[in-house]
Design brief:
Blueprint (H helix, E strand, L loop, with lengths): L11 E2 L53 E10 L9 E5 L25 E5 L5 E7 L10 E7 L7 E6 L10 H4 L3 H6 L3 E5 L2 E5 L2 E3 L1
Parallel strand pairs: 1-4, 2-9, 2-10
Antiparallel strand pairs: 2-5, 3-4, 3-6, 6-7, 8-9
């Protein structure tokens, strides 16, 4: 799967992140709900835009914050895994600052954090991003934006990933507008491994 022309094409395959085997899939029927792109999609794709958001080429230090390994499986509604699906994520740094000129705190952004990354699913439909737990900013709960480009000419899925048991969820208008089933499909499953916190998020494409 090729990324669209407006996206630089340097992508890391899931194997480059040493993705643990045995990623589970959720049992919730239906396709992953779509949500808006939001105001902070990057104006330009950074030169370093791989699947490891914690290390920026040329930066003198790694990202600040709590590391998070985001993994999952992309599949059809019938459960068939989808290899070669192109994925993007973008998010705030640990201080809640986005890589976007409209963020009023841009001057204090952590330059050791990419803020944007991309990956491609492997032969079993798995993907992985090494990122961090996003910080909070005014009016929003903790979240990660995600876009998946299905094979062929299907319309991309744009959505958001939420975290369980966040107090700010109950004050976030996008979260409050979701049905219980939609919330379940857009909430990560948290766990830990030898490298720290891990979040699993499966994607079901129509």
């Amino acid at each position: 799967m090729q990324f669209p022309p407006h996206i630089a094409r340097r992508a890391l395959l899931v194997g480059g992140l040493l993705l643990p085997t045995g990623s589970c899939t959720n049992d919730i029927p239906g396709t992953t709900p779509a949500l808006r792109e939001g105001p902070f999609y990057p104006r330009s794709i950074p030169g370093d835009a791989d699947a490891d958001l914690l290390h920026v080429a040329g930066a003198d230090r790694p990202a600040q914050g709590e590391p998070l390994l985001l993994t999952g499986v992309v599949r059809r509604q019938d459960g068939t895994p989808l290899p070669g699906v192109a994925l993007e994520i973008w998010q705030a740094d640990a201080n809640g600052i986005n890589m976007h000129p409209h963020d009023p705190n841009l001057g204090r952004r952590d330059l050791g954090f990419q803020g944007y990354g991309r990956a491609t699913t492997d032969g079993a439909g798995r993907y992985a991003f090494r990122t961090l737990r996003p910080g909070l900013y005014a009016g929003r709960t903790r979240h990660i934006h995600l876009r998946a480009y299905p094979l062929g000419r299907g319309r991309p899925l744009t959505t958001e990933i939420f975290f369980p048991d966040e107090a700010a969820n109950e004050e976030d208008r996008l979260w409050l507008a979701l049905s219980p089933a939609e919330r379940a499909m857009l909430t990560v499953r948290l766990g830990t491994d030898a490298q720290g916190q891990r979040a699993e998020f499966d994607i079901v494409l129509g």
